[in-house]
Amino acid sequence: MQVEYITTPEKLQHIEENLKSQPFIYLDTEVAVKDFENIDYFKDQIRLIQIGTDTQIYVIDAYKIDKEKIKRFLKENVENKGIIGHNLKFDLKFLATNYNIYPKVVFDTFIASKILAKGDNSQKHSLSAVATRLTDEELDKSYQTSPWWIENLTKEQIEYAAKDIEVLRSIFKEQVLRLNEDQTALKSSGETFKVFGVKNPVAALEMSFLPCLVKMELSGFPINENKLQIQTQNAKSKFQNLYIEFKKKYGIDPMSPQQVVNFLTKKLSIKLPKTEKGSFSSQDVYLKDYEDKQEVNLLLQIRYEKKNLDKLEELKKYLKEGRIYGEFKQIGASTGRMSSSKPNLQNIPKNLKHLFEAPEGYMFIIADYSQIELRIAAEYTKDQNMIKAFKEGKDLHRLTASIITGKDYENITKEERNLAKAINFGLIYGISPKSLVEYAKNNYGVEITLKEAKIFHENFFNYYSGFKIWHEKTKEYLEKHRFIEQQTLLGRKLIAYRFTDAVNYPIQGSGSDLLKMAVVLFYKSLDNIDAKVVNLVHDEIVVEVKEEDLEKARKILSTAMEKAGKYLLKEVPVSFEISLSKTWNKD
DNA sequence: TACGGTAGCTCG
DNA sequence: GTACGAGCTACCGTAC
Fold first, then answer.
1. CATH fold of the domain at A3-218
2. Nucleotide closest to A311 measured between CA and C1'
3. Virtual CA dihedral for A575, A580, A583, A584, nearest 10 degrees?
4. Is the CB of residue A332 inside 7 Å of nucleic acid strand B?
5. Which nucleotide is nearest to A425 (CA to C1')?
6. Burial class (CB in 10 A: 0-12, 13-18, 19+), A404
7. CATH top-level class of A225-321
8. DSSP type of residue A313
9. Are A223 and A324 spatial neighbours (Cβ–Cβ below 8 Å)?
């Protein structure tokens, strides 16, 4: 292993010569983080920057060289090259905050590993786990959390830092081979594709998306701090008062499921259904029928206030100067969807969305794809009736309502439409008539009998026969082979063992392909416009934009969403809503 | 006291 | 025969 430890500006200048001809480099950083649970991307400092070519490894000590000199070096030798690294979101965030460096062409072996796992959750994707799986090399990660802030690093620390790069080389090469084996009908293009020799369109998309995600995390999501504080105080006193009232009146803790169940069944003689584990369940939906009892009413109120309070306090934990800084996993679900945490910005209750507010002089553009999963399902199953309906711009829920009830399209009631909504969504996931009864009641407040559910189920499949065929084929294949390898519209491979997963994964996965592609296209056309994506929620994009750029940004976003839709869906048109608003609540 | 599982809630 | 994907909090039993 050829390792050079770089501690002077002269040495730094010297390696520039060797880097000049490299179209891409391997990169890793070590950061002086004392508490890995609480990383501060804005305060913590990069200690080492490891840069590798196929023959050389340079370990640059950021504590020994003037910051401005390193910055200039990175600007000229790193920012515009292809960057290969493992879990690059971490390194790119620090390069941005420490040195204002934003590479655009990247290949992340962590993301590649997740793509290659095809949705298998049991696989681990740490650098050492990937090394073990793909190469003959083993990696000792025990130095990862060693003290990277001490003045003179040990020889072992430097060697450890360099070793990561060495492993990276073999992993990258093996991954490119494996990704390229997996070519699909759809061809990809773009810089990422060319620089790294990657032909896999899913990899190309994910790698292009990564720098967008870095920007989004660093941007944070603006919130009205004042409103947040006041609302938290209100929620707190409201909850406390109700909590004390309940405890005084009934002598039990309303937050203890056990005590609540005992109280409801013994004292109020309420019949409760069982949970999966066989204990009684006191879920809100089962208590709705007893709302007129004051005990139940108070309990439901307490739960509602408690949820609000929890979410508000969770938000406050991650508040910094009027913005919430959350984290996203780029591939958080096996389907390819993102997930969000610390705090979770993808499950903000509707009644708290108004707190998110663009700062003075800025606005939000809120865009979401309409009935996207249903459209994807139509594309996927090639169901002619559903495709036709979407082409004609029909209200799909209303159409389904008329199909299952046999009534005219024009005479469908609100309740019937709600029921159809339940069926449309349920069918995507392979719902059974039995579950449909529950689902319709719990989510749409529509009560039907099992017999009715069976009829609706049958009517649905008879009309949307493309679905029936697709479901049957999938079921048959699964019975024969035990598992099935599905594919999203972009070519993301997903392995399913259960029927419900087999019909759901490609649809949910295609939705995530679509959203990511729209974001990538948006950033590509943005030029010098002061706009940035501040949140992504599966089928929704929230952009913060300077008021004078509002119209331009709206147009660019609209074009991006349309283009992504046309690229992925050939038979079914996409449709989306775009609204301009000061808060996350659409005005 | 620490940890993991479960229930219950939010979102798509 | 089974609707899908996430994350967070609180409770509660178990292990130390």
1. Nucleotidyltransferase; domain 5 (3.30.420)
2. C8
3. 10
4. no
5. C3
6. buried
7. mainly alpha
8. H
9. yes
Q: Read off the pTM.
A: 0.94
Stretch(es) of chain A classified as CATH 3.30.420.10:
3-218
Q: What is the C-alpha separation between A404 and A401, in angstroms, rounded?
A: 5
Local confidence pLDDT in tens for the 587 residues of chain A: 789 999 999 999 999 989 999 999 999 999 988 877 788 999 999 999 999 999 999 999 999 999 999 999 999 999 999 999 999 999 999 999 999 999 999 999 999 999 999 999 888 899 989 999 999 888 777 667 677 888 888 888 888 888 899 999 999 999 999 999 876 544 555 666 778 989 899 999 999 999 999 999 999 999 999 999 999 998 888 888 888 888 888 888 888 877 888 888 888 888 777 776 667 778 877 787 788 888 888 888 888 888 888 889 889 989 999 999 999 999 999 999 999 999 999 999 888 999 999 999 999 999 999 999 999 999 999 999 999 999 999 999 999 999 988 899 999 988 888 888 888 888 887 888 888 888 887 777 788 888 988 998 899 999 999 999 999 999 999 999 999 999 999 999 999 999 999 999 999 999 999 999 999 999 999 988 999 999 999 999 999 999 999 999 999 999 999 999 999 999 999 999 999 999 998 76
| C1'-nearest nucleotide to the CA of A272 | B7
Distance A363 CA to C4 C1' (A): 34
Q: Quickly give A573 CA vs B10 C1' distance in Å.
A: 30
Between the CA of A88 and the C1' of C1, what is the distance in angstroms? 43
C-alpha A51/C-alpha A40 separation (Å) is 23
Question: Which CATH code, of 2.60.40.3880, 3.30.70.370, 1.20.120.80, 3.10.350.10, is assigned to A326-380+486-587?
Answer: 3.30.70.370
Q: Residue with CA nearest C6 C1'?
A: A339
C1’ C13 / CA A282, Å: 20
Distance (Å) from CA A76 to C1' B9?
50
> Edge to edge, what strands does the sheet with A540-546 contain?
A531-536, A540-546, A362-369, A576-581
Residue A494 in tokens: 């997903």
> String of b and e for A462-476 (b: at least 16 CB within 10 Å)?
ebbebbbebbeebee
Distance A59 CA to B11 C1' (A): 44
Q: How far apart are CA A375 and CA A571, in angstroms?
A: 9
DSSP 3-state percent helix, strand, coil across chain A (nearest 5): 55, 15, 30
The alpha carbon dihedral of A254, A255, A256, A262 has a sign of positive
Helix (H) or strand (E) run with residue A551 in it: helix A550-568
Domain with CATH 1.20.1060.10 in chain A: 225-321
How many whole angstroms separate alpha carbon A364 and alpha carbon A72? 35
Q: Is the CB of A303 under 7 A from strand B?
A: yes
Q: What is the DSSP letter of A267?
A: I
Q: In A356-489, where does DSSP find H-type helix?
A: 372-381, 384-391, 396-405, 414-428, 433-444, 450-463, 465-481
Report DSSP state, residue A411: G
